[in-house]
Amino acid sequence: MTTQAYSYAAPSGLVQGRLGLSTSGGVTSRGTVAHPHFFSGLLTRGDVGAAGLLALADVAQTRYFQPRPTGFRDPVVTCNGDRLRMESFSACAGVYARLDVLQEALDGEVTSLGTTNVDVNGPLREALARVGGSDPMHLAVGEDELVVTTLDGSTVEKKVPLPERWLRSFAEVQAIASGFDLRAELPAAEAVRFVRGLPRRGRVLWAQPAGRGLRVAARPVPGGVCLAGPERLATLAPLLRFAKGLRVYGPAIAAGSPPVASAWELELPGMRYVLTLSPELNRGFSGEGAVLDALAEDETAADAELVAALLAFEPRLEPGDLADRAGLEPSRVRAALTQLGTGGKVGYDTAEAAFFHRELPYDAARVQAMNPRLRAARALAEKGGVRIVSPGVAQVTGDTGVYQVRSETWSCTCPWWTGNRGGRGPCKHVLAVRIHTREEN
To answer: Which residues form the SWIM-type domain (predicted)?
Structure first.
């Protein structure tokens, strides 16, 4: 368990139509700042913004699997210039939520680009719940240096425990979402009908297009989308009165497919609210293994350092443009972006099918150190547990047995791989062979 310390110049608050979000230390285009100031102006629909931020806060303090009281984790906010992105993760690490406040919803001055945490406290949540009407609301994300100085002496200090699986989930979800495609698009009325008609409890369901809407099935069908734990879409319900439509994203599935992740994006006036769900209610994103291939490659790590130097909090990262600027092939840039995601430096926007730059408060080395599968694979390679027995075939001796890895399909005879069939990333034996082969060459 890691403890994250937040320091705010004052508590966030909503007073007489002015929403002030206090910021903690963050990274900006000018470097590290104790209390960054990103935006000051009008939020053109205060009711939508208040409801969206409240929904985001609800996800951050919820355990959907084995519910019990949990501490609150402050949302991460990134200013990309033409938009504000607010992100949070559920306490069980199975639901990722993001509120994108787009340019058409903002009327004011962007004073800086970067990423920080914002204070969301109990009184603020109560105030947000009382916001009504469609009038604009003044929004300040951080205060300028003069105001911060005058607030000296009312500093708010928070120490929040961050589970390792919660941090790893932030790294995994962007890699998983980058493999999604748009599967269904519902108009407002159908979106309301579908969400309100979902069962309150359920294990794994499958939503499939039916006319202009979706219907729920018990088994996977081609073109459908996995919906694991329909109760995890509950934070969409208070936003439905503002809905303009619902888009659903996921990987390709076939008859007999195992459960997979999915993303549910509610289109709002000038904003988007996105929920990305893990494949099962009892399964957080931290163990999905989508980033392990990128973490295990030294060449990708070097490429990631080069690409990282070119990022400037862009709202949309174009691999082709980055490839030209870095002198790399686009495929290497895409792999580098995946690895940068493991350090919290990029997220993925399914609506635009593009990565975006942000800086979470942890680094790639920390995530690698936390990943048990990668740690075990490196230990196997270092102690000589890998032996090449023929072209394309390796034997890996571990603590629990000897297993065979075939590099043609990157398959393994271990129980873990047999049970998941590569659906949760490579096993430690496959990773060990890759590490061994790279070092031999």
So the answer is: 403-438
Q: Would you call 172 exposed, middle or buried from its count of C-beta atoms within 10 A (0-12, 13-18, 19+)?
A: buried
Residue 132 is encoded by which pair of tokens?
A: 């009504």
Q: What is the DSSP string of 19-51?
A: EEE-B-SEEETTEEESS---EEEEES-HHHHHH
Q: Identify whether the C-beta of residue 260 lies closer than 8 Å to the C-beta of residue 250.
A: yes
Q: What's the pLDDT band for 367 if we cut at 50, 70, 90?
A: low
Report the DSSP pairing between strands 156-162 and 95-101: unpaired
Note whether 172-285 and 292-366 share their fold. no
Q: Which fold has domain 172-285?
A: DNA Polymerase III; Chain A, domain 2 (3.10.150)
Residue 248 has phi, psi (to 5 degrees) of: -125, 130
CA distance 283 to 267: 27
Fold of 292-366: Arc Repressor Mutant, subunit A (1.10.10)
- 384 touches 436 (CB < 8 A): no
> What is the CATH topology of the domain spanning 2-161?
DNA Polymerase III; Chain A, domain 2 (3.10.150)
Q: Is pLDDT above 80 for 343?
A: no
Name the nearest CA neighbour of 272 among 351, 372, 341: 351
pTM: 0.86
Parallel, antiparallel or unpaired: strands 13-15 and 18-21: antiparallel
Instruction: Quickly tell me which residue has 């900006």 as its tokens.
Output: 28
Based on its alpha-carbon atoms, the radius of gyration of the chain, rounded to whole angstroms, reads 22
| Confidence class for position 92, pLDDT limits 50, 70, 90 | confident
Sequence letter at residue 119:
D
